Task: inverse folding
């Protein structure tokens, strides 16, 4: 097996089970290493640290084992089984009103680079490392063995998450899809596996959507960055008096309209608009009791964090200015590179600019099917605040 040796001092985090080796930490490689190859990682004194997938990118190795063990099919079976057991323990397979959730959450399930989302018997696989993609057949066969008749189809959706220089074929790789609708806490959503964002739906917001729906009764709600209308459907479920959904993508707004017609046929309470959320907040004369801000990641990597923080500050300030006294702001950041503290600070600065009195009601993260690997701070990527605005 090929190996790499780390520069002196670069072993510290790895010894605390941090799973990423950055290219700048590598002192020496044993020879030519292929993309996606399984390699071992040693410290400067040739002591074993871990085994992982190599890739010529800033994250050079994603370590999946910190024990010098054989990486066989049994190894992958055991890891995948543990991920599925965790969801079984949480009762996620037996909920009466929810049949979609994340089945495997990459580093959060000690399977770096592998995402599998469960949509009522259909699995969408999204690989974030070439090594995982190369092991797709083994992964598929293990999923079939463990899930048995519950599993109907496996769909690959990795062309957007893997480097352009490798050939990736998206589409159904096993079985047959039966229906494209799922239930989340009693709301029905249409999943566009082929063209939708991520794996088709943002399953990480399930618990937050449910929480927010408890604060909207008889209130006017603005849901910006609405995508397929997740928060909007929950707002109507929570008996909001009026819901406005905004997204810059016309396709997203079509999907939102479909979602709302499916769940609340003929409702007069909902309006959906194709608009830039920043511009909408600048130009609308409406004010709202509840505003939801769930933008895409403003910082995709560490170099652009300060721009991202400015973006959050601007957006939150505009939203707070449109909130009625005694209203609520529900604000999120899904930027992995932005910390909880940095995000909170940007919301604080935004609030201070408006001069409004604000209190934090809830501090939120991702839903339980997206567990956070304590050894990998980046896996706590979703941060949210529910703020009471006087
Ligand atoms: N809240 C959604 C997920 C949001 S994903 C849910 O619960 O499912 C982010 C969305 O923001 C995408 O649909 C994208 O089209 C939209 N978007 C990106 N930039 C935008 C902008 N400037 N104004 C409005 N929408 C934007």
Result:
């Amino acid at each position: 097996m090929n190996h790499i040796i780390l520069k002196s001092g670069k072993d510290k985090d790895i010894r605390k089970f941090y799973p990423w080796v950055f290219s700048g930490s590598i002192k020496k490689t044993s020879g030519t290493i292929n993309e996606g190859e399984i390699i071992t990682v040693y410290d400067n004194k040739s002591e074993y640290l871990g085994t992982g997938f190599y890739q010529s990118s800033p994250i050079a190795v994603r370590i999946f084992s910190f024990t010098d063990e054989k990486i066989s099919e049994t190894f992958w079976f055991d890891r995948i089984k543990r991920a599925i057991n965790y969801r079984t323990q949480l009762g996620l397979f037996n909920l009466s009103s929810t049949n979609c959730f994340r089945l495997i959450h990459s580093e959060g399930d000690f399977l770096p680079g592998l995402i599998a989302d469960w949509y009522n018997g259909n699995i969408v696989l999204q690989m974030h490392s070439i090594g995982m993609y190369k092991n797709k057949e083994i992964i598929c066969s293990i999923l079939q063995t463990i899930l048995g008749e519950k599993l109907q189809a496996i769909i690959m959706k990795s062309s957007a998450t893997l480097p352009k220089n490798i050939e990736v074929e998206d589409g159904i790789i096993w079985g047959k899809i039966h229906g494209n609708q799922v239930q989340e806490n009693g709301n029905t959503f249409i999943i566009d596996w082929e063209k939708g964002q991520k794996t088709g739906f943002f399953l990480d917001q399930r618990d937050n959507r449910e929480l927010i729906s408890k604060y909207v009764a008889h209130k006017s709600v603005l849901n910006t960055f609405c995508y397929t209308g997740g928060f909007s459907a929950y707002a109507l479920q929570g008996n909001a008096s009026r819901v406005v959904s905004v997204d810059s993508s016309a396709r997203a707004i079509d999907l939102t309209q479909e979602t709302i017609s499916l769940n609340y046929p003929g409702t007069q309470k909902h309006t959906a608009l194709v608009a830039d959320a920043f511009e909408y907040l600048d130009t609308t004369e409406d004010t709202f009791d509840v505003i939801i801000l769930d933008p895409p990641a403003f910082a995709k990597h560490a170099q652009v964090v300060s721009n991202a923080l400015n973006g959050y500050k601007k957006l939150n300030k505009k939203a707070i200015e449109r909130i009625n006294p005694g209203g609520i702001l529900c604000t999120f950041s899904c930027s992995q590179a932005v910390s909880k503290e940095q995000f909170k600070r940007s919301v604080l600065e935004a609030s201070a600019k408006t001069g409004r009195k604000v209190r934090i009601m809830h501090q939120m993260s991702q839903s339980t099917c997206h567990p956070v690997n304590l050894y990998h701070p980046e896996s706590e990527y979703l941060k949210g605040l529910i703020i009471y605005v006087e």
User: Anything to note?
Assistant: The CA atoms of residues 152 and 178 lie 7 Å apart. The longest strand covers residues 323-333.
